[in-house]
Amino acid sequence: MEKSKKQTVFSGIQPSGNLHIGNYLGAIKQFVRLQDETDALFCIVDEHAITVPQDPRILREKTLEVAMLYLAAGIDPKKAVIFIQSQVPAHAELGWILNTMTPLGELERMTQFKDKSAKSSKAGILAGLLNYPTLMAADILLYQTDLVPVGKDQKQHVELTRSIAERFNNRFGQTFKLPKELLNKQTARIMGLDNAEKKMSKSAESKNNHIALLDTPDEIRRKIKIAVTDSGSEIKYALKEKPAISNLVAIYSEFSDKPISDIEKMYFGKGYGDFKKDLAEVVVEGLKPLQEKFKTLEKDPEGVLKILRAGAKEAAERAGRTIKDVKKKLGFVL
Ligand code: TYM
Asked: In which compartments does the protein localize (predicted)?
């Protein structure tokens, strides 16, 4: 199929903290699959990361690390555009423009803002945290995106993006395509290993909350061994009744490519101990190719930077068309 007839896919990941298997299963695994059938762009959203204070040295390191993880997971720069958000100025430009037309109430209603701001005093909440979703809308709308593969926690932001786009189109004429979120039902919300009521998160307090993509095999085994379970002893996928085991079964299924029903059959009559031991090996083996590829990429940061610069060049060209149209419609002198 011609590139122009394919659906456009856009998504991004923040270079903050360590990427974990929730990010992988909820987002990156979908990216890898989608790059073959769609016109895909995957971004490292450093401008989003600075909505909470970052150490510049670590931010730089983590930005390259996310790029290497994208590549190590199998995103191929020949198939998809990989780039750093701050290398394409149109993101910040359109983000600002969208800020001027987005009601405060809509931003204050965002669950992620409410959660993150609840952790600080009012004086400690930065304006950028509130405006986070308008920058995300800019990311998506610049590329006339059809589909946004994300985890469930980002669904509300994509819905807001759609309403921002609709409002702009109604006022200024057709400018933006209306995007839709793409969730993978089984992995849209991977829960914390230490608490099955809360999603797995980069910023969780406990190190035992998540398995990082670069955790060593022993660390992975240890974290799975101490992961919370539910009462009873049956290995069964039943989200309401057994949230912790269901989460582990979903992780098993994703890393082994076995359907959940097969896993339930395999462990019928067996206990949590046997299941967890096998799960640890499935995850260790599942992450092995990615970790090996990461080690190779780490030796060639210049090569990775080259891919990112080429990606930014292509992204800037494409984003440039949309931002030019937007500016013209607003009455900016070009
Ligand atoms: P971020 O960096 O927090 O997370 C990256 C991706 O991982 C998904 N995710 C999860 N999926 C399943 N289970 C979990 N426990 C889990 N935790 C995280 C997230 O949903 C996300 O898809 N705002 C975005 C970054 C962003 C973006 C964009 C995404 C900026 N601009 C434009 C899409 C399109 C974020 O904070 O992701």
From this structure: Cytoplasm
Residue range 201-256, pLDDT digits in tens: 998 889 999 999 999 999 999 999 999 999 999 999 999 999 999 999 999 999 99
* 171 Rama sector, left if φ>0, alpha if ψ -120 to 50, beta otherwise: alpha
- Positions marked active-site: 116, 199, 202
Distance between CA 25 and CA 21 in Å, rounded?
6
The residue range of the domain holding 269 is: 217-295
Task: Assess whether 69 and 83 both reside in one domain.
Answer: yes
pLDDT of residue 198: 95
Cut 0.85: pTM above it: yes
The predicted pLDDT at position 123 comes to: 79
d(CA 91, CA 28): 22
User: Which residue bears the tokens 């903050």?
Assistant: 16
Average pLDDT over residues 53-76: 98
Residue pair 98/164 in contact by the 8 Å Cβ criterion: yes
Residue 174 sits in the same domain as residue 310 = yes
Largest Cα separation within the chain, whole Å, is 72
For 119-167, what is each residue's pLDDT tens digit? 878 778 889 999 999 999 999 999 999 999 999 999 999 999 999 999 9
In a domain, 198, yes or no: no
Q: Is residue 324 a known part of a binding site?
A: no
Same domain flag for 36 and 162? yes
Residue 17 clears pLDDT 80, i.e. is over it? yes
Q: Which of 9, 10, 13, 84 to mutate to test the pocket of ligand 1 (most atoms within 8 A of CB)?
A: 13
- Let me know whether 11 and 150 are in one domain: yes
Q: Is 208 marked as a binding-site residue?
A: no
Q: Are residues 291 and 305 in the same domain?
A: no
184 has pLDDT over 90: yes
